[in-house]
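Request from the bench team (R.T.):
"We need a structural guess for the complex before ordering more nicotinamide-adenine-dinucleotide. Sequence and SMILES attached. Just send the tokens back."

Command: build protein-nicotinamide-adenine-dinucleotide structure.
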Amino acid sequence: VTTRIPVRGDRPYDVLIGRGLAKHLPELIGSAARTAVLFAPPLLEQAAAVARELPEPLMMEVPDAEAGKTVEVAARCWDALGAAGFTRTDAVVGVGGGAVTDLAGFVAASWLRGVRWVPVSTSLLGMVDAAVGGKTGVNVAAGKNLVGAFHAPAGVLCDLDMLDTLPPDDLVAGLAEVVKCGFIADPVILDLLSSHRENLRELIERAIKVKAEVVGQDLRESGLREILNYGHTLAGRLSPDVARRHRSGLERLGLPVSYDADAFPELLAAMQVDKKTRGATLRFVVLDGLGQPGILTGPAPELLEQAYAEVAA
Ligand SMILES: NC(=O)c1ccc[n+]([C@@H]2O[C@H](COP(=O)([O-])OP(=O)(O)OC[C@H]3O[C@@H](n4cnc5c(N)ncnc54)[C@H](O)[C@@H]3O)[C@@H](O)[C@H]2O)c1
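Reply to R.T.: structure attached below.
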């Protein structure tokens, strides 16, 4: 069975979760006569299978992972779309992890100021995070994800078959975002994580529901959506009990729970250009309790150092 999770907004769409989902592509790309299929080399076979469902696919191989998320690669894609005479009614499909779907979405957002697109997410992080919510973009010299656009997809495919080939480290990286959804909104996730292999589908569905709910209420990150950044830099204010739950939960999944004691200056510099920052004021997503996220604005520098000392190895 295929699960459909709706994402509200000016252009609502569904996230589909199940197996053998490529057959849904024709309905999602609608009247598009041609479709560009962006993929990186590790997903060649999967991209070819996706292309078989599409009219006149134009295969576009891009560099893997962050190497593909650049303005130069986007420009190569624009050139290829131009050479193939892609019009406003044609479509873009991205087959890959978050990096490829971010790039594909950005190419779709910018080509002719926006054409239809569908992410076919192949990593756990892509499914529960990157492909849901309409944020697209590339990295620039000044930092990651600093150039991009909000561009809702026509639909999102989370095909569980894709996860069979996902490297174990990438599975664990995706689980970190699943844990986050547990802490900010759905504590049942935290219980299911104790047998995450058996519960993987339910975990994916629950995490997507958390994200879909948040972005559906706040499409352009003006407020609520910020809570999704929980744990992305420093976060604190927890009772010892909830803090212990973070440590034990993350450790059990094989995720790190401490950082290099010398890395604070580097972290501070990164936080200053982080998307949560407003002007010179640092902002943090914190928890007041399980499922109760809040925002901490401009904390005293000593507090930050103290918080870091708690996680420094
Ligand atoms: N747009 C958003 O809202 C949003 C949210 C979170 C993250 N992101 C972005 O997502 C990216 C991270 O995504 P990611 O963790 O998927 O990394 P990724 O896309 O770099 O993929 C990680 C590696 O796994 C490989 N891979 C992916 N699926 C595979 C599969 N099924 N089988 C074999 N190999 C596979 C990829 O080729 C790559 O080498 C970052 O660029 C991040 O900025 C975007």
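Two things stood out. The two ends are 46 Å apart (CA to CA). Residues 40, 42-43, 64-66, 69, 96-100, 102, 122-123, 125-126, 129-130, 133, 135, 144-145, 162, 165-167, 170, 173 surround nicotinamide-adenine-dinucleotide (CB under 6 Å).
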